[in-house]
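hey
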């Protein structure tokens, strides 16, 4: 049971985080101890390049098509969400995952307390939360002189604003016409280039891909 049904405890967010830190509010709910038992994956079927990552999340295996403009509980079929949301994201117990992308300049650290593990649901909800934040002035400066990217962001924002009536530019708009989750993958060369010199490294660093609906 979620002990914070109407709000998240504010003491999880103290000061400015870089990268953005996401702590799933339901971390104390039961989870499966190892692997993702209950999914009858065909052992003769093709295997992912990343066997430690749940196939639900792997870019070369996932069948989940999630439009990240929507909350995960709405953007993913309800029956599917109920099956996958509390399933561990990795075979080995994993408490901390850093997600980066070639599609946006931010990073998100998904962190769960001791005694729990990062779940597939935490990945989806963490990404959604990250991309719902407003674009800051310094972030807009990155694309101010890039006509094509700027126009794509503004077009995506207009389409979204017509529905939610929020006139601020949001990070989700940065994805333009590619808001569909296409999975996680490893890219060591990109990870090295993307890593901020002097900052701590996270063993489980993954690159998220997006595509068109």
């Amino acid at each position: 049971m979620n002990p914070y049904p109407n709000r998240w405890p504010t003491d999880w967010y103290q000061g400015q985080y870089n990268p953005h830190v996401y702590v799933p509010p339901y971390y104390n709910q039961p989870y499966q101890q190892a692997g993702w038992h209950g999914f009858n994956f065909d052992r003769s079927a093709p295997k992912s390049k990343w066997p430690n990552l749940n196939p639900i999340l792997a870019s070369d295996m996932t069948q989940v098509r999630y439009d990240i403009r929507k909350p995960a509980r709405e953007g993913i079929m309800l029956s599917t969400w109920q099956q996958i949301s509390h399933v561990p994201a990795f075979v080995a117990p994993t408490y901390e995952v850093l997600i980066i992308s070639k599609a946006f300049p931010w990073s998100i650290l998904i962190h769960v307390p001791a005694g729990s593990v990062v779940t597939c649901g935490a990945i989806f909800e963490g990404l959604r939360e990250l991309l719902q934040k407003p674009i800051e002035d310094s972030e807009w400066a990155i694309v101010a002189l890039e006509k094509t990217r700027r126009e794509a962001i503004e077009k995506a924002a207009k389409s979204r604003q017509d529905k939610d009536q929020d006139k601020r530019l949001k990070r989700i708009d940065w994805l333009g016409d590619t808001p569909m989750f296409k999975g996680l993958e490893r890219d060591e060369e990109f990870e090295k280039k993307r890593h901020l010199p002097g900052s701590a490294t996270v063993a489980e660093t993954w690159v998220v891909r997006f595509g068109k609906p």
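The longest strand covers residues 205-211. Residues 20 and 108 are 5 Å apart (CA to CA).
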